[in-house]
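Lab meeting, item 3. Inverse folding demo.
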């Protein structure tokens, strides 16, 4: 199996998620009718990609560590 492709896919999804949230926060700031949830945007822009990366890191540690030490 090609694990590097799966790892790259997780990183790509995290970057796409971060970019989408960042763009939404910029649109909220431009729009005068919608108040800017600045603190929540920053929290989600950091937490969601971090959760994806940590989750994938935990998964890959369970996959790679037994393979490396057997």
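The presenter then showed the designed sequence:
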């Amino acid at each position: 199996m090609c694990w590097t492709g799966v790892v790259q896919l997780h990183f790509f999804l995290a970057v796409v998620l971060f970019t989408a949230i960042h763009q939404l926060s910029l649109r909220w700031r431009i729009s005068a009718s919608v108040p800017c949830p600045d603190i929540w945007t920053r929290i989600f822009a950091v937490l969601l990609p971090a959760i994806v990366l940590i989750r994938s890191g935990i998964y890959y540690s369970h996959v790679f560590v037994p393979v490396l030490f057997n």
